[in-house]
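User: These chains co-purify. Model them together.
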Amino acid sequence: MTHHRVAGVSIPRLDAADKVTGRAQYAIDLTLPGTLHGVCVRSPLPHGRIRSIDKSAAAEAKGVVCIITGEDLAAMPLFPRFGMVPDRPILAIERVRFTGEPVALVVAETRAAARDAAAKVAVDYEDLPPVMTLEDALASGAVLVHEEDLTSEGPSGMGPDGKSNVLYRTEHVWGDAERALKTATVVVEDTFEYPMLYGYAMEPYNAMARFDGQGLTVWTSTHTPYMNRRELARIFSLPLSKVRVVVPYVGGNYGTKGLAKVDPLAALGSWVTGRPVKVVLSIDESMQTARGDSARIFARTGFRADGTMTARIFEILVPAGAYADVSPLVMAKMGVRCLGPYRVPNVRVRTQAVYTNTVPGAALRGFGGPQAVFAGESLMNWGAEELGIPPADIRRVNMANRGEVFHQGLRGLDSDLQADLTILQEELEEQWRVDEAEQDRRRKRGRGFAVSATNVGDETPVSTALVRIHADGTCSLLTGAVEVGQGSRTVLAQILAEEFGIPYDQVSIIQSDTGVGTYERYTAASSTTTLQGLAIQRAVQNARLRIRDLAADAWGLDADDVKKADGGVIVKDQFHDFGEVIKEWFGTEAGEVVGFGAVRGPGDLQEAPVFWEVGNVGVIVSIDSDTLQVRVDSIVTVGDCGFAINPRLVEGQELGAALGGIGGALFEELLYEGGEMINGTLIDYRVPRITDFPTAARCLLPNRQDGVGPYGARGSGEGAIQPVGAAVSAAIAHAAGVRITKLPVTPERLWRALRQAK
Amino acid sequence: MDETMEEIPINTTVNGRSVTALVEARRMLTEFLREDLGLTGVKVSCEVQVCGACTVLLDGMPVSGCSTLAAEAHERTITTIEGLSRGEELHPIQDAFVQSSALQCGYCTPGMVLTVKALLEQNPQPTENEIRHFLEGNICRCGTYGFVMEAIRSLSEAPDGSESVLG
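Assistant: Joint model of the two components:
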């Protein structure tokens, strides 16, 4: 293993001091002189036609500057919709498609004045029959959520076609699955349901926008500033050079803040009033803005007597909500991730996402993985049970080896999952023994595990980095990557310091301002360390070549006579730091040198996915005999991220992701009754608290340096959420002898399952 | 309907400094601290007293600023996260959080640190159960609870010798 200075070291987070002192600024904290505040009037109906809007009483309210409706918007020279599939109007135009959809924007001097006035806007609706469920959406003659055909406006194949509620479909077929199932010794099947979840980033959605002589600037909480920039540019017909998106620290993300959410509202307010406008949603409103996709998955798998699979069939249905957001992509990922990291000779997977009159489904940590892996891994466990084979063994005989292509058309598996499984098994067994000694007799215990391999990112990864060497030899990185809590500021600083060979306290990282940092497609898909990390390495190489050329020029040498060194160059056996080279060339202690690096799909990271993010999670649960409440007492995760540049941060990501999975497995679920979300507040929607964190939590990091990123790293952040649903279900099955097909496993559901089993 | 909202004069001490102000009757403590005094370290999240992000100390006791009227600060002392450090010098709890990397996005951190301060002042050697019970009102959606408990452990010792969380 190469010796590293700082890569591989758990240095304390570089943003920690800001965050523990309250100095850290989030978009919600920012303000400008003269800022106005926007508050939305929202639809009380899941589906309706807007007959009229009476602004008169509201317009007279104290402090109100203007009230904008969808009708006003439609008359403006603006592109009124946004989204990857541009189906979502900034304000509802003629129709409302989910309860909570913004119908008007009230802009006033204070947020309180805007709120007071918003309550006075009178909207007259005509009810339309709501499409609330998969059945409603897919029924023949179903009411259409979108009546227009927008398929030509978004990525190919996605969007409403005006004929049905289908938003997108994919299919993966190889071999002949139906026939291969007939030759199986054991076939297991069922329909699995994964709940609709709320990400609950603790900083609610917010944005502040300002138009001025240079164009539009938006300060917001997002992890995709460059994508938001493009959407805003389209809305206002501006060139990219005149749109700037600035992102300070982000108070929670988990994928939920991808693409524009409230940016267009704030920008619209500023465009109309000519003043800065800030829109800050409450958490209740945030729950009416975006949520995680639920899924209904029919799954079937055939096994031979030795446990090897003959075939897998999946039919995946996703009720995606009123607007597409990235649900088509989430659905498509489910179609790959359900299969697992296994050799499956015959496959038929079909996915379908449909529009419904519910809050739009958007990205959420795991991006389709938790849903799909719950189904796929549960069947692996059932197959093992019916064949009388240990669950670990049934994985081993099917599991792809490192380097092996296991999904047609996609990159081979880049992790040694077989070795990870060994570590997971040993650790889980050890935890079981320890836990046994402490058991409470009123609780039934069980253990279970699951594994996953998930294809990260899209087919066109793009990441660029700009590095600067200052006149004193210290360095900066200008990056489009966002610090959302995952620790990018710290890890990227470690990479920068490592590459230049200077101490990490001599570098600075300037992040997520599209007017300053260079293009970063997204901070998502667990890919920042890999993509931006590679871009940084290339940028540093580029900068070093320039330094070399400057040194050669300044000292009258051949380029070959300038040798690379940590923090500088060696010329005629003498070390000169970067600052000296710059001083020598510029003639004084002034000037600087930059380097640019880029990473892209074509010809570079051409094979998709960039890497497989893997997950290995084992849990021990205990069930209260009286209340049937399930608790995860112990969790083990093997974080196979290739190489942990900052091990402590990887542990934090692994355990944090796993806890998120526990929420979905045991108690998180958004519920609709009739047209209404009935638990759309934090009082009614339960998220994991410190009391839910397992008593024992172990994270192992194999560090085999087999990743495609710097120093053999790949990525982390979502791997540990994928297997949790199936792992918890397996543990419950071990404890109570019931099979789980629907999450979350509330006490009531467990009670019903136990009764049914009798 | 343009009623003039009643305004209430308050004299309060915030982070050791005396503050005199006139606040609307309905103004919440978070709004007063963040907007009137510029203390944006006080975070706002659920606004229904459930998440703990807006925790400030009112006469040393953790309260939800979102559900406390600004007027209630009259003749009382308030400590926000900004009141803990002295210039660049961190309070030991803040330092423990930094050393343990007991945070990720950091949005829950001010509230969490203040609640830990109140805990350790009441109970310098809390057991794991006592820690979990006291912090149950502080949500960390990033799931950094394990490292938070490590940070607390580094500042105290459990009298029952219970094992470290990250065994």
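Chain B touches chain A through 57 residues (CB under 8 Å).
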